[in-house]
Amino acid sequence: MISALLPNYNRAPLAFERGEGAWLWTTDGRRFLDFGAGIATASIGHGNKHLADAIAAQAHKVMHVSNLYRIPQAEMLAQRLVDATFADTVFFCNSGAEANEGMIKMMRRAMFANGHPERYKIICFEGAFHGRTLATLAATGNHHYLEGFGPPVEGFVHVPLNNLNAVRNAIDGQTAGIMIEPVQGEGGIRSADIQFMKDLRSTCDEFGIFLGLDEIQCGMGRTGKLFAHEWAGIEPDVLSAAKGIGGGFPLGAVLAREAVGKYLVPGTHGTTYGGNPLACTAGNAVLDVILAPGFLDEVVRKGNALMAGLKQIAVDFPSVFEAARGKGLILGLKCVIPAGEVQAAFTAQGLMTVTAGENVLRIVPPLVITDSDIAEALAMMRRGAAACLPDVAKVAAQ
């Protein structure tokens, strides 16, 4: 008999009742160091007082009115994002999948409005993850995710990451744009090379197509820049954001240049909940923290310290780990043994992580982790890695 809550997740037998910073406590009193952050979503930590107080205060006033009316909180958040980025305009929604749907529609609609209705195809990359809607599943291109849902939505072409020849060969008279994650999260913390990102920008300019960036997981400060593409010194035409943008409150956004966004006029796109007063209050509170002087510099510093520790662990446990990868606080350990086994060993030590593609264990803690959190996490990883060793190796390690 099916459970009341649809069993479409393999849930761990843990139920959390409260959190503080990077720590979570279960209903039965156990404490865990959360280096998964709700899949890179609890950007400014659990129980953040500034965020919680802002949400509570707004909830006592008005939570939702719909986009039939002006929403000052959304106007403020949009202006702040415009001021801090390449964008001229912002559309708010509820999730990453919705943000990517909006980005796809913007690129296609802009081509249509400029007299090129035939240009609707979008070049995507192997190993990508763009969401669970029918269109974003097609953009993802993973056969396992697509199975059983009928014919994939047309218009998405997939090429290898960091292969400019493959990109250029895929461009034809039906191409509207390119859609890429600067750092693939679900795909195994796989980074697009800096030069490749620069080449994509120049290629889009050359062929008159749009560059769309999915920064749902790698954006909002996670790499040490507000958005990861800034490391390459380029600007996209349109960008999707979610996860960390609301610090755990459901919020997504599409940031766009005027030349792309202006064609989504009334009647072409919409949302009921997106950009409501409560969600945008959360978004503004998160920006207060992330844009504070020195905050992103600290993400870089802490990311470097954590990466150094991960690299040493990979060296010290070569039968468990192959290498460390990533940037800032979107990091991963490529495993030799099944990543799920390593994740279970880490959980047994009190450390929460997330598996990803390419047999990688994803390490995406809240951006507010402390140096002591990092030290404790690395110690837990060492104990967990030791527990994964064969019995003979365990004796030798002792």
Provide structural commentary.
With 398 residues, the protein is α/β, with parallel strands linked by helices. The chain has 14 helices and 17 strands. The termini are far apart. The mean pLDDT is 96.
- Oligomer state of the chains in this structure: single chain
Radius of gyration (Å): 21 Å
CATH homologous superfamily caption of the largest domain:
Type I PLP-dependent aspartate aminotransferase-like (Major domain)
Give the number of domains. 2
Q: Would you identify the regions where 5 or more consecutive residues have pLDDT less than 50?
A: none
What is the top-level CATH class of the largest domain?
A: Alpha Beta
Q: Indicate the CATH topology of the largest domain.
A: Aspartate Aminotransferase, domain 2
Q: State the CATH architecture of the largest domain.
A: 3-Layer(aba) Sandwich
Side by side, the strands of the main sheet go: 4-12-11-10-7-5-6
Question: Can I get a quick summary?
Answer:
The chain is α/β, with parallel strands linked by helices. It has 14 helices and 17 strands.
Task: Spell out the blueprint of helices and strands.
Elements: E1 16-20, E2 23-26, E3 31-34, H1 37-40, H2 49-59, H3 72-84, E4 89-93, H4 96-113, E5 121-125, H5 134-140, H6 143-146, E6 156-159, H7 164-170, E7 175-180, E8 183-184, E9 190-191, H8 194-207, E10 210-214, E11 238-241, E12 252-256, H9 258-261, H10 277-290, H11 295-316, E13 321-327, E14 330-335, H12 339-348, E15 351-352, E16 354-356, E17 360-363, H13 371-388, H14 391-397
Parallel strand pairs: 3-15, 5-6, 5-7, 7-10, 10-11
Antiparallel strand pairs: 1-2, 2-3, 4-12, 8-9, 11-12, 13-14, 14-17, 16-17
